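call fold(seq) -> tokens
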Amino acid sequence: MTLFTQQATKHYAEQPWFVLNAASGFTLCPSAHPAVSHYYSFMVDINVEATYAVPDGCVDLIFDTNEESASAAICGTTLEASDALFKPEHRYFGVRFKLGMLPEFLNVRANEVINQTIDLGDTTITAHALIETMASCPSFAKRVEFFETILSKAASFEPSALTQFSLQQLIQHQGNMRMESLEQLTGYSLRTIQRQFKQDIGLPPKVFGRIIRCQAALHSLHKLNGVSYSDLAFSLGFSDQPHFLREFKKLVSTTPLAYQDTIRASGYNDKISLVANISQDNKGSIPTSKNFHQDDKS
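ret:
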């Protein structure tokens, strides 16, 4: 019996530069799998010099599906805006895992990839077959179905109940939460909470809260017109507007004003194409997953 109530926690985990630098559109599909937040796909515009990854707390498995140079990498959350090193005119397919969760066949835990990008071939002997099949799938839908077929036979690492509860609280408060409050809510010492959280997520709760504040700011800028930066800074717990502006620029690579100008000019929300969860009932010619697990010896 768990000590904590497990509730659905909404974590936006946005990567806005992936959308902004997409050549024609950004496709996103939610997943019903307990370890996966969503799938996405986009082609990098030919004129793009750099596509930044911003801190989101999550781990992504990203496939470059260009058949001539297909590859895949496990990408941990960054700690500030960092160049994702995407190639112009290449199509990427991504799997964004839920906080602290990864399928066991990747042979890596979330706490091992913070601020790192690891070649898939360095973690699993089946990487080549997985990459080759993903690149040969004829559509986004087929790639989603193929990966979900693999996941259907895979166990997943997941955070402890204590960490899941702490995550819920931090997200609910948009990262604006004193760590001592977690002691009062859980009955555990702050030292125990921090040790377990870092073991599960790879970051101290305070650093994760900083990431959540950044993500909350992005979400507000995407959804609200005429937002006051001073009001936004206050609502997220910043001591003053200049502190918020410095933090935003470090984590997102630009100022809130310049960012809002960019998303308005690009038609940000219109570039995102949300598709319904793709059913597993009719997989057609999707390859079997049996060759993609190391414990299958046949």
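The longest strand covers residues 22-30.
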